[in-house]
Structures are given as C-alpha cells and as structure tokens.
What does this fold into?
Amino acid sequence: AIWCMNYSGHTLAPTFSGDFLKLALQRGTPDAPYRGPQLFQQDGYTYVCQNQGSIEWFSGTEAIFFGEQLVYECRFHGGWVR
It folds into this structure.
C-alpha cells in the first residue's frame, strides 16, 4: 500500500439513506478524492463534506441532512504510507 484512509461514520436517525450516501460518494472530485463533493442535494437530502490538507496528509468530516435534521456523520483522515 502507498496510500490509506480511515473513516468512521454512524447513522443518527431512521431517515438516513445509504442509497443517497452512495450517490454522493460517486460524485467525488479529482482534486479531493477522499469522499464525496463539498455539497450534493437530492430528494430532500443534503450531503456536506469538508476537508483540509492534501493527498499526502488530510482529514475531514461529512454529514447528511434530511431536511433540517442531521441523520449521518463521519470523520476521516489519511495520507501516504511511508
């Protein structure tokens, strides 16, 4: 392995949608490929991802809201393995 990432997320409400999370993760960007995009919305769900650092060493958080309710949150970090 030359690169790794660790993440831990959990659901906070029964309205969480794993299908929505998969859609958001499929929209990750080449400049920040850690999880999903900074913002993605569909069918009342909102995905928000914030990260800092570079591919060499990074950390961040992601959250999913259904309407105004936080239904999922995750923390992640990773980087090059030396």
